[in-house]
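Whiteboard transcription, Tuesday session. T.W. wrote the structure tokens on the left side:
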């Protein structure tokens, strides 16, 4: 009886945690039009990667900047003003909604040695790096051929439910095996 109660409680806890509204996604933009030092060209393998996580607290089906707990682009978390040694980061806009519609705007500046570098990314528009030295800027522009891929990240509660289910199936198989051994004796 106690085992059944413990199993029921564990499954109820796993189910309750799985109902959370937390959304976590990885995204990759692939293929950009380049402009660097006066030269242009198509870069089919150029990528901008990132991830975001947050709770749709107002339940409107759209995850917005104020609802995010993490926004990483190319390895930097833009929700923290200091994203590394001598670096400042900021996110000024974010939206993710129906049909995997993703929109964001982030900025990062670095002050290294005697120079600086600034990066601005506006999804669907451009990725721009500006320097305090020649060539002064390099830009990647989103084009009609730029591909956005978004993948879901399983939440820890999903793994917990999977583990509980596998343990339950293992316990049931062991129980059946024991009963089969007892009836044969």
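and on the right, the sequence the group agreed on:
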């Amino acid at each position: 009886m106690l085992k059944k109660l413990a199993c029921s409680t564990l499954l109820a806890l796993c189910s309750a945690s799985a109902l959370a509204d937390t959304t976590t996604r990885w995204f990759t933009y692939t293929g950009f039009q380049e402009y660097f030092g006066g030269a242009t060209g198509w870069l089919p393998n150029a990528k901008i990667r990132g991830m975001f996580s947050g709770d749709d607290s107002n339940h409107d089906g759209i995850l917005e900047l104020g609802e995010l707990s993490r926004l990483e682009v190319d390895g930097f978390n833009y929700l923290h003003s200091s994203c590394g040694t001598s670096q400042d980061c900021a996110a000024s806009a974010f939206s993710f909604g129906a049909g995997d519609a993703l929109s964001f705007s982030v900025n990062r500046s670095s002050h290294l040695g005697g120079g600086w570098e600034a990066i601005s990314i506006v999804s669907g528009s451009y990725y721009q790096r500006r320097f305090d030295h020649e060539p002064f800027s390099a830009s990647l522009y989103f084009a009609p051929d730029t591909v956005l891929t978004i993948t879901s990240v399983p939440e820890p509660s999903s793994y917990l439910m999977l583990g509980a289910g596998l343990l339950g199936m293992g316990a049931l198989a062991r129980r059946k095996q024991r009963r089969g051994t007892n009836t044969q004796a």
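Someone added at the bottom: Confidence is low (pLDDT under 50) at residues 16-20.
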